[in-house]
Each structure stands twice: as C-alpha cells, then as structure tokens.
Amino acid sequence: NQVAEADIAATKEQLINQIQLFTSYTDKFDLFAALLEGFASFIFVTVILNTINNKNLKNSAGFVIGLALFVITVAIGGMTGASLHPFRSAIVAVLDQGFGSSAALNSGIYILGPLVGAIVAAILYRIVELLSSEEFKGFSVKIGSPKEESKKKKK
Fold this sequence. Notes:
The structure is a single chain. The chain is mainly α. It is built from 7 helices and no strands. Helix 2 packs antiparallel against helix 3, helix 2 (31-52) runs parallel beside helix 6 (108-131) and helix 4 packs antiparallel against helix 6 (108-131). The protein is elongated and about 100 Å long.
C-alpha cells in the first residue's frame, strides 16, 4: 500500500512539473522570450492568414494550422511556454496569482510579444496582398534623377 502511495505521489509530482514547464508567465520581463513569442505569433498568424485565404488549402486549413501550432509549440514550448495568445496568458497570470502579482504585472512577454508579432504579420500580409492585386500589376517605380530621365528622352 505504501508503494502504491509513493507511486501516486511521484506521478503527481511529475504531472505538476510538466504543467509548470508550460506555465506561461514569469516574475520578470525577458526580452529574448518576448521576441521569441512575438516571432512565433508572427509565424502562426502568417500561416493562418495564408491558409484561410488560399482556395486550394481551405479543405485542409485545420490540419495545416494545427500542424503549425504543434511545430511552434515544440520549438519554443520549453523556453517560453508557447503562449502565442495574449489574453490567455493574462488570464492565467491573474487567476493564478491575482491582479497585483508580479506574474500578472510582468507578463509583458506573453502580452506584448504576441500582440506585436500578430499585428506585424497582419500588416505585412495586407501589404503583400495589395501589391499582388490586379491594381498593382504592371505598376512600376522608376528610380533615377530627373536629369537622367531627360537625357533618356532626348536620345
């Protein structure tokens, strides 16, 4: 009976350690972690936007997006927890530690990083979408000084 209780306690400890590994808040702001979360969010939002707006991928969008989430989580999960969602991280920190806690106040890694990454991905996606639209096809910008242009016209 004591062996079974020891096994249960060890299993419980292992489970708690695994949960803590993927807990997405910290007591300090880590710039590298924030950049990593931002980059991962950028990649994830880019995959989402390109997948849902591609007619050829609409039927497999769930698989592609899920696969991207899996790869990102495996890649950065051990370093930052792979939160990728600011609201999720803020709620976890607040509910676990309270509003005034250092985890809630310093969870900028998981709020600023993903927000900036997602916003940059959306803006870049929109720019690329506009530049590849029919309105911009054939549109070119001539680079050169006005003097060079006038010399070309005279010839």
